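Notes from hallway chat w/ T.B., transcribed later so I don't forget. T.B. wanted the structure written out for a chain they're using in a teaching module, and asked if we could keep both sequence and structure tokens in one place. Agreed to drop them here.
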Amino acid sequence: MRKLLSPTFTSGKIKIMFKLICKCADNFANFLANDSGNIGKTYDMKNVLSRYANDVVATCAFGISVDSFKHPNNDFLLLAKEAANFTSNPIKLLVNKNFPLLGRLLGLKIFSSKMKSFFKEIIADTVKTRDEQKIIRPDMIHLMMEKRDNDHGLTMDIDEMTAQAFVFLVAGFDSTSSAMCFLTHEVGINFDVQNKLRAEIDDILAQTNGKPTYEAISQMEYLDAVINETLRLYPLGGFLDRICVKEFELPPATPDGKPITLKPGDSIWFPHYALHRDPKYYSQPDKFDPDRFLNGEVDNSVYMPFGIGPRMCIANRFALIKLKIMLFYLLWRCDLEPDTKTSIPMVLSKKSFLMNPEGGFWLKLRARKSEAAIPFLSNESVCED
């Protein structure tokens, strides 16, 4: 299945979905600029960024247009939040992961029947309509329909399409919105970074006549560095896991220790949070310093926010472009600054599998006063294919 779906997330396919993401970012940034005004307003960034992430997943994976800023209580958003909260009951999760037969016998469901029916119905209706009316839309549904219509030796029916789109929802909604929260937090409290990043954004706007292209945003070096540094400091999970397939001997962890032999079938956890903050690999590891990604300091073998090797995150390119477009549009339209509620320094909560700060993410946003923001006053699309 991974082999079948990997082409969905190539640069070429993501470029096709670029305009859909831009429209969501345009809507998101317009809302915040108009809502905050010149005086400014403090926001729960998890709330607003979850809405943006939801709209992107809805349009790119499920083929429907959802405006979570105009309709903050829409069914898609509410069920997406419920789906993303699947780790809230660790007992159900661990039983289903390690003892699936027991989980089925005990009826320990991670997702409700209502949720399954809702998302399956969306996929089924969308596919039926597109088949009947020959509709082509640049999203994940269309790409899966193309796979369905070709003989790859794998079944791609409605159940499989729904399952893949649902995995995309769970992975692309909560974890990506959390990454965006850490990203805006660091940009909001580091004014030198924000000013340097905005200068790069204004330069791209001047080059593209106010209509940023996929190529232009993809090639922004400092934007890349800011996002990479955020993911270094805040990889969303505390660890990566892999299954050993070949016997291997690990060297002693300490000078007086003994080597450890891994056997096929052993489950291995990699603490990439610890690796990313190890002074052996990163100078001043707790400092937010995007320049380390511009000066050749980083060893890619110890940088793995999306995993590493052939089983790394299948949608890492998609996640990165979603983050880039969000920050591009937000800084194009708004100024970010800390509020009294902003946690400085940030203290991470110990109550979740994923990384979240105690007290949440809070920033003050203010509509930006500059000529660069003028194109947003138009209702026309502000991105190019």
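Follow-up for T.B.: The domain at 2-230+314-377 is CATH 1.10.630.10 (Cytochrome p450). Might be a good example for the class.
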